[in-house]
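Review form for a predicted model. The reviewer records the input and the model, then writes brief findings.
Reviewer: anonymous (R2)
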Amino acid sequence: MKKYLKITSILLTIVLGFAGCKKEYLDINTNANSATSSTPQLVLPALLNNMSSNYMSYFNFGGRMAGYMANGGGFSFVGSTVITYNFDSGSNTTLFTNAYGDLRNIQYIIKTTTGVPQYSLFNGVARILKSYYYQLLVDEYGDVPYSQALMGADNVTPTYDPQAVVYQSLVTEIDAAIATLKANSSSTTVTKLSTNGADIIFGGNVTKWIQFANNIKLRILTRAQNSTALSAFVSTAFNTFSTEGFLLEDVLIQPGYVSTSARQNPLWESYHSTYTGTTTGNSYIPSTWIYSFYNGAKLSDASRGALMYRLFAAGTTPRGHLGGPNNPNSGSPNWYVGTGTGTGATEAQGVLKSRVMGLCIFPASETYFLLAEAALNGRTLSGSAKDNFENGIKASYNYLAKSGTSTASQTTTVLNNYLASYKTANATASGVTSSQSYLVDWDQTATVLPDDYNKSVNTRRLEAIITQKYIALNFIDGYEAWQEYKRTGYPRVTGTAATTTFASTESVAPTADRLPVRNLYPTSEYNLNPNVPPISGTNIWTGKIFWDNN
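Model under review:
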């Protein structure tokens, strides 16, 4: 789509009001010229565009919690839950409220398309998106309204379903959505997803939606596989993936961003500059911790380091990090590697590519690392553990190396050369203590070392997979990286030094790693829904999500 979705806010207001208001409010002061309903092909693109904006709530929270971002010099967060982690019911509320805002619109599509063959493809896509959002909610809140939720005036106080039950239901929902898409993908009578540019992710490609659904299902099963509640279910479900396989490309939302008033990419808007050229994002800078995965303190990765950070130079003190020179930003955002400032900034490589770039919500690297872990655990899905591990690293580099709005991949030769140089840069002599070369080189995971890294081969391999996933998700999906840390304990943190932990120095957490395990429900839930679990049962330090074995 070349033009931006001008009707986005109007449509979402219409749908949200229709789905969530009490019935009597729709019966009075009725304006015959005001719409109270819409069509799936109008609601879907507006919903997807809104998802890209709401994604920033998860981006910001996850980036802080996973150690990708730290408080910028000159910006005080003293006493704030942002750095103490002492979350209350007023903390991080958009994670909950934004998700349910979009879920109401998703449910509108599901409700209005169920039993309507013409819109079966829209029904399938909406159910996939519903599962995508509910996993985000469960991963940070545990029990959530599900079976009685999204019913509008029919039930304004839904019960909270057990988190493991919701997780299992999401897999069932995905399977049903895939069946619907497969049954209607070749139909000549259904309304296509591409009608009027409705599908701003895959352009109407039903196969890619099925593959993306497999990706989400794989993420859910991987997260739940070691839980007591769902381990048996997961073992069976791993054998039920659709034969279309997995989507091995970066998933981008692209509504047709333009560089004028509130219509540019939301990541650029938040961390580069507004459409008028005012620099944004100064309150956050890269942490010393995250630089250690690039500058040799933990791992050496000059190539990705230079694509991630402005003025990055391997082997020297990084610029713009906590305590480093040019702290905070001086003239240009720290995550921008192009030239020029404000409206004069050029298209670039890295994570801040362009004002009009697509927003990445599920990178190919994550899919490869999920497949690597599946293979490590003996699940026969696609490729070996080693191949997927290495492809994940290459996919991470490939995404960063793309410039501007280009979706063209690097050549196989370029990607192979990058991986080879990455291994070489992190190679160590046999027997060197505290070697971390196995975090880069799969073959080194079988090498026995005489220090605390001397663990089982599979333990070392899991650490390598999750650590590389953590690097690949840097400033792309910190929320997912944070959940994976909660599940696995990787990347490993120790002590309180800036290069050994990503926990805030202001943390008041009594936990061993000085980090919380969950969020509290928003104040609005405690005030309006008597079914919300009590605060006493959702302790932010001890109330772990059901899959959290860390």
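Findings: The CA atoms of residues 72 and 284 lie 5 Å apart.
Further findings: Strands lie at 69-71, 144-145, 160-161, 251-253, 284-286, 359-362.
Recommendation: see findings above.
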